[in-house]
Specification:
Blueprint lengths: L2 H25 L5 E8 L2 E5 L5 E6 L6 E2 L4 E5 L2 H26 L3 H33 L5 H30 L3 H27 L1 E3 L4 E6 L6 E2 L6 E5 L4 E7 H4 L7 E6 L7 E14 L13 E9 L11 E7 L16
Antiparallel strand pairs: 1-10, 1-14, 2-9, 3-5, 3-8, 4-7, 5-6, 7-9, 10-13, 11-12, 11-14, 12-13
Helix pairs in contact: 2-5, 3-4
Length: about 350
């Protein structure tokens, strides 16, 4: 057999294998198991104090788990307490001032004003009689015109004083003006707001955990000057826990929100964690550097957020994971995280 014949036979065999493989692959049923790769998402919160002041104490260490509302650190509180005490004293003084206006004039004050009017009336009567007596004497040339003028001035002054005292008596009976009461009420609200602001500053001098988390970084120490621009602690959030992964456009139509999923990691290769698809991005993006391969660097993918149960706290933030989704399963309710995955 010549070399030409051998080459022809080889080409025919290769062609036959390719054709057979094509038909065999065409007859294979489409796979229903979708495998995706990603990482447990890292979510951080940086905590800082609102007002500049030195740190008095930090109550947690790196790696420590904290609960929502737990006090993590505090500043020196003397200055904040002084502000609270000052605002409280001003508020108390204004409350008494408003009560005074609302109660109006006391009966004793009204009685004093009435007696002042009576005394002024008597003074006017006396000044009038004195003026008439001097006028009579002046006609008889027994008093000078100068003395008459002085008596006239004293009489006019007594009448003006009587009028003023009558007005004061009327005001005492009426009580404070409505405008004064409203102004005092407005000032009381302003003082109440000042007290609440001082109390808020005192509360802001304490750092509280916003959610259940893990202390990732302890940046400052007691004695350091803290302000709003300098974080004191960095928290890593782990509840809820999810894996960020990406799916190609050709597989996107197979997935639905709420579809069950199984998550596994290299640290525990024989264990699978129950999960579900909780978010599907509405827009495409280029494959991220952390998951792309040489062939996929220019591919467009859609981000998925697969929530995962972690009852034994084995999955860590940033850990690479593999997500398996059976595309034939219908979306279901959130699974019981306390039971083992199948």
């Amino acid at each position: 057999m010549t070399k030409h014949h051998k080459a022809t036979i080889v080409l025919l065999v290769v062609a036959g294998c390719l054709i057979a493989g094509f038909y065999l692959r065409r007859d294979d049923p489409p796979t229903t198991q979708l495998t995706l790769y990603g990482n447990i998402d890292i979510r951080q919160v940086e905590l800082s104090f609102r007002e500049p002041e030195r740190i008095e104490q930090i109550l947690v260490q790196e790696g420590e788990q904290v609960k929502a509302g737990q006090v993590l650190a505090s500043q020196i509180l003397n200055g904040y307490q002084y502000q609270v005490d000052l605002a409280a004293a001003r508020l108390e003084a204004q409350q008494h001032q408003l009560e005074k206006l609302l109660h109006g004039s006391r009966p004793q004050e009204i009685g004093i004003a009435r007696n002042d009017v009576k005394a002024a009336e008597a003074s006017v009567t006396l000044a009038e009689k004195e003026l008439q007596r001097l006028k009579t004497l002046a006609i008889r040339k027994l008093a000078s015109s100068q003395s008459v003028d002085k008596a006239k001035a004293a009489y006019d002054s007594a009448k003006e004083n009587l009028q003023a005292l009558k007005e004061q008596y009327a005001l005492a009976k009426i009580g404070p003006r409505a405008e004064d009461i409203k102004a005092a009420q407005a000032q009381l609200k302003a003082d109440q707001a000042s007290l609440e602001l001082a109390r808020k500053s005192w509360r802001d001098a304490h750092l509280l955990a916003p959610r259940d988390a893990v202390i990732q970084n302890r940046i400052l120490e007691p004695g350091d000057m803290a302000n709003a621009q300098t974080p004191v602690l960095t928290l890593a959030l782990h509840d809820p826990l999810w894996a960020r992964t990406y799916v190609e456009e050709r597989d996107l139509g197979k997935l639905r929100h709420g579809m069950p999923a199984l998550v596994s990691s290299d640290s525990f290769p024989t264990k699978q964690y129950k999960g579900w698809i909780g978010y599907i991005s509405p827009t495409a993006e280029f494959t991220p550097k952390s998951v792309e391969t040489t062939e996929l660097r220019t591919s467009l993918v859609y981000q998925l957020r697969v929530y995962v149960c972690n009852p034994q706290d084995q999955l860590r933030l940033g850990m690479p994971v593999t997500v398996s989704v059976d595309t034939t399963q219908a979306p279901s309710s959130i699974p019981d995280c306390q039971s083992e995955a199948p």
